């Protein structure tokens, strides 16, 4: 398999899940900082020009939520979807929320041109995105204050994006630490020691705490 990724982007979540499966895969760098996702070479892989993309033995699939769910189903031995029905439901709820709600708010910050055409209108869109990101962080904090993982008591495909959102919140300028978000920060520190997360961080040469 091949994972097309850019360091620190939402593809980091799929990267973690791939490592959790134990399957062999190759990383293919597509630097969004350099606009490589818009180049013809990558658009031949994903015409939408968005990451991540996964080449699974000749087939191509895109969209983070879809890739992570696909991998969880393909490698059931990794137990990335909870066996308990209630926790599995919560896992899938978070995955949908991360993709449909949280990432849209972040796009308002760093991909503002998707929402408005005139640069003069960028400011209000970015301000609204930052406020939503802060509100979403409070929602995650409240959940993790009572639960060990996104699904409840077990690690699942919903957890990697919590780490991405933690990192993005700091990058956006929000104060995210053990004082303002104690449960989320403790969770991030704990998961940073998980082999799949540690190895993905090292491979992408990024930090959760100092974006």
Automatic annotation (TrEMBL):
Pfam families, per database record: GST_N_2
- GO molecular-function annotation terms? transferase activity
CDD domains registered for this protein in UniProt: GST_N_Beta
- Indicate what this protein is called per its UniProt record: Glutathione S-transferase
Residue span(s) of domain GST C-terminal: 84-211
The cross-references to PROSITE patterns, in alphabetical order and at most eight, read: GST_CTER, GST_NTER
Domain GST N-terminal, residue spans = 1-79
> Which UniProt keywords are listed?
Transferase
């Amino acid at each position: 398999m091949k994972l097309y990724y850019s360091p620190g982007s939402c593809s980091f979540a799929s990267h973690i899940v791939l490592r959790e499966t134990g399957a062999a895969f190759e990383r293919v760098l597509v630097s969004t900082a350099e606009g490589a996702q818009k180049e013809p070479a990558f658009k031949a892989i994903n015409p939408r020009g968005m990451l991540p993309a996964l080449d699974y033995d000749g087939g191509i699939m895109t969209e983070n939520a879809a890739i992570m769910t696909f991998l969880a189903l393909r490698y059931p031995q990794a137990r990335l979807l909870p066996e308990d029905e209630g926790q599995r439901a919560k896992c899938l709820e978070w995955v949908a929320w991360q993709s449909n709600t949280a990432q849209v708010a972040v796009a308002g910050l760093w991909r503002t041109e998707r929402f408005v055409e005139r640069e003069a209108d960028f400011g209000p869109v970015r301000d609204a995105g930052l406020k939503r990101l802060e509100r979403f962080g409070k929602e995650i904090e409240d959940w993790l204050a009572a639960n060990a993982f996104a699904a409840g008591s077990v690690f699942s495909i919903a957890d990697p994006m919590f780490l991405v959102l933690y990192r993005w919140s700091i990058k956006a300028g929000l104060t995210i630490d053990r004082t303002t978000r104690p449960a989320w920060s403790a969770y991030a520190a704990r998961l940073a020691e998980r082999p799949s997360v540690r190895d993905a961080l090292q491979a992408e040469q990024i930090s959760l705490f100092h974006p």
